[in-house]
Amino acid sequence: MHPRLQQDLDQFPQILDRTRQLAEGFLAGLKQRPVYPPLEAQQLQLGDDQLADSGNGALATLEDFWLRYAEGLSGSAGPRYFGFVTGGATPAALAADWLVSAIDQNSLLSHDTVAAAIELATIEQLKSLLGLPKAFSGSFVSGATMANFVGIAIGRQWLGQQRGIDVAEQGLAALGPIQVLSANAHSSSVKALSMLGIGRDALKIVDCLPDSEAMDTAALERHLAASNGAPVIVLASAGTVNTVIFDDLPRLLALRERYPFWLHVDAAFGGVAACSPHYSPLLTGWEQADSITVDAHKWLNVPYDSAIQFTRHLELQMQVFQNHSVYMEAPTLRPDDYLHLTPENSRRFRALPLWMALKAYGRSGMQDMVERNIQLARRLGAGLDASEGFHLLAPVNLNVVCFALSNVEGDAAAARDRFIARLDRHGIVRCTPTHYNGQPGIRAALVNWMTEEEDIRLALESLRHCLPEAF
User: Fold this and answer.
1) Which of 38, 189, 266, 464 is the 20 to 30 Å CA partner of 51?
2) C-alpha closest to that of 60 among 2, 104, 6, 14
3) Mind listing the GO molecular function terms for this protein (predicted)?
4) CA-CA distances (angstroms) from residue 190 to 93, 143, 180, 337, 420?
5) Where are the beta strands (DSSP E) in 287-367?
6) 260 lies in the same domain as 392
């Protein structure tokens, strides 16, 4: 054995203990850590892009990394990171994630490791939490992009089935052009269209309802009526990124009775609202969708990378993703045969962090996290609306606050960007830019399990502090 490998084998306990110490220190200071580290700290230091001929061993390398780069790590796992839709990691999920790397299971086949059985159990528990029926199967993928990819891929296979074509075998050319309809397709779904060979140009934007991001179903019906028999996939939003608006799923389902199409529901973070009796009505009808995306590393607060794809069409999913090899088990139609159900041949044990979190906190813990975030988002929105210098661009429907600077003279987008740069330098709260109804805006998305009222107070103070002096 190489001497450095032998050294690290002998020092394994010390390596793990030092890692624990560094992680413990990081977590202890998480609430005080800047949500946006200095730009200079985010750069690679001299020489670190070169491969050394002789290594230094794990302990020395660990110390060197922390000394050089700890300052460049964001507090994005903390309670005032409101950028994008970024969750944190609950203690149970973090503990599980450490174990995932230590035990290093390839969670493919149920007879090879218990990992596949736990993944199946996690899917069943998640369906119970979100009110999804037994008819759905599901599996873990790396994120919403791959969950949307899988859902649309199964939809592509379904479109072929309606015409007696096996797209997985014959290729997309046998099916011909596909029409994809959506009012607010997430960029990850558009990316999936490119990867699947359907093409970004297949996406046709359906009008929204007035003053809303929700799809106008009358406009959708006009598209469907004019499709002339072309295969159609409808991408519905269950929580848009700016205002967390939900498409009217019952009306979409009624249209599907007259114009058959594949209904994919992108519920990356909004779907988790189904765990609350107060907000589950927003998702009425999603149990009849053909495929669904839910992210775990957003509102379910497990570490990156983790998402779940659901579908009611397991057999079609296996047609798309089956993997034939002389040294592997042949495909069998069962919901835990993950080798034949996901894009990956090798998969880390992604299910364990969510499984442990669900065991640790239960239905009531998840519900508390969701409802508290929504309450605090509304408090943040009310505070901004009452502050000179800000105005809301839309009502706070759930857990995202979409707002803008008031009384800006000149280039509003440039003023917005300067404000966000000041906010980043202040380091207390992280928000991200957006556009809504043609106006440059700012988003604050609350999904972290640690966020409390004190964080909203600190965030409002920082936002007001960073306003241009004219305010």
Assistant:
1) 38
2) 14
3) diaminobutyrate decarboxylase activity; pyridoxal phosphate binding; transaminase activity
4) 30, 15, 10, 28, 27
5) 291-295, 307-311
6) no
305 and 279, same domain (yes or no): yes
Between strands 137-141 and 307-311, the pairing is: antiparallel
What is the phi-psi region of residue 118: left when phi exceeds 0, alpha when psi lies from -120 to 50, beta otherwise?
Answer: alpha
Angle at 381 (CA atoms; ends 380, 384), nearest 5 degrees: 85
- How high is the pLDDT of residue 78? 97
Q: Find the domain containing 144 and state its range.
A: 106-348
129 and 35 both lie in a single domain = no
pLDDT for the residue numbered 470 = 46
The CA distance from 76 to 206, in Å, is 34
Below-50 pLDDT ranges, the chain: 470-471
Q: Is residue 289 located within the same domain as residue 260?
A: yes
Among candidate residues 398, 416, 417, 420, the one with its CA nearest the CA of residue 408: 416
Q: Rounded to whole angstroms, how far apart are CA atoms 471 and 464?
A: 9
- Provide the whole-model pTM: 0.96
DSSP H or E stretch at residue 384 = helix 351-385
Q: Which two tokens stand for residue 438?
A: 């043609």
Q: Is 14 among the domain residues? A: no
Same domain, 208 and 279: yes
In this predicted structure, what is the pLDDT of residue 110?
67
Side-chain-facing half-sphere of 290: CA atoms under 13 Å: 28
Task: Tokens 């020092």: give the residue.
Answer: 11
Tracing tokens 């299971």 back to the chain, one arrives at 105
Q: What is the DSSP letter of 137?
A: E
SS3 458: helix
pLDDT in tens, 65-114: 999 999 999 999 999 999 999 999 999 999 999 999 999 999 987 678 99
Distance CA(7)–CA(11), nearest Å, equals 6
Q: State how far the Cα of 80 lies from the Cα of 425, in Å rounded to an integer.
A: 14
The amino acid sitting at 167 is V
Do 415 and 277 belong together in one domain?
no
Which tokens hold the place of 230? Answer: 């072309």
133 in the same domain as 170: yes
Count of domains observed in the chain: 2
Task: Give φ, ψ of 341 to 5 degrees.
Answer: -125, -10
Backbone angles phi, psi at 447, to 5 degrees: -140, 5
What distance in Å separates the CA atoms of residue 24 and residue 194, rounded to the nearest whole number? 42
SS3 at position 439: strand
Chain centre distance of CA 155: 20
Closest to 119 in 3D by CA, of 296, 326, 321, 312: 296
Give the 3-state secondary structure of residue 215: strand
